[in-house]
């Protein structure tokens, strides 16, 4: 009798779970359908919201064509965020043919209403000469305007200009100043670059402890080059106690993301038996992997997203 009651209770719990899940799905579908009906009736807010839902795949399967349709309707009515998102779709070719001129047009409409991310993206387009003639002065102007509004991707992009000397006089101290600001906002690329500047002493004296600190922050977020550089710190004992096993762990994480430098570092460890059992065959395998990857390098040491949405 007791077991029979247990079975009934388990069945009821299962039935309630299935029923409630089904109701939730139905409610979600009803919500999307209602929003889409409002959008089709000309409601600008609904057009923007359903466009974002289809763009990001939030609650529904991603559908760039529907996202483009609704965001265009909303953007044409003057919604600055829809204009930004539409520009981004043209910029990246999401569901449509990539068109830098159209991207620039919509970014500019959004930026004219004060949208900081649109300003950042305009800066990137002027920097690269995409959709508009290259103009370093305007690139820096838009980046600075976006940063004054608290946009730290723009801050990172300013730092990169000073770091590379593209469009401005190269200045590692200024680069460090801006990279530090965006690094404190958890931008992993900036954390990598702060680490590298301290590691190499580009803005003054070397500081391995600070390099280790910032490489760790970036590596923990999964940045492949920070993982490689952190592995090197452990390998050499710079800023931290030498630890070949940890070096090997970080090199492996980096190599798994396609970092060629990390592959060569792993090969060296197998060749010398540092942190692993000496194995010349494995060393040769890793050299082969690195050479094979070299012609089709999947990552750029300084790669990062200059545009966003």
Q: Secondary-structure blueprint of this entry?
A:
Layout: H1 2-40, H2 44-56, H3 64-76, H4 80-92, H5 100-111, H6 116-128, H7 136-148, H8 152-164, H9 172-183, H10 188-200, H11 208-220, H12 224-236, H13 244-255, H14 260-272, H15 280-294
Helix pairs in contact: 1-2, 2-3, 3-4, 4-5, 5-6, 6-7, 7-8, 8-9, 9-10, 10-11, 11-12, 12-13, 13-14, 14-15
Question: Could you explain the architecture of this structure?
Answer:
This protein has 309 residues and is mostly helical. The chain has three domains: 31-150, Tetratricopeptide repeat domain (Serine Threonine Protein Phosphatase 5, Tetratricopeptide repeat), CATH 1.25.40.10; 152-213, Serine Threonine Protein Phosphatase 5, Tetratricopeptide repeat; 222-303, Serine Threonine Protein Phosphatase 5, Tetratricopeptide repeat (Alpha Horseshoe), CATH 1.25.40. Helix content is 71%, strand content 0%. It has helices spanning 2-40, 44-56, 64-76, 80-92, 100-111, 116-128, 136-148, 152-164, 172-183, 188-200, 208-220, 224-236, 244-255, 260-272, 280-294. Helix 6 (116-128) runs antiparallel to helix 7 (136-148) and helix 11 packs across helix 12. The longest helix has 39 residues, at 2-40. It is globular and about 70 Å long. The N and C termini lie far apart (61 Å).
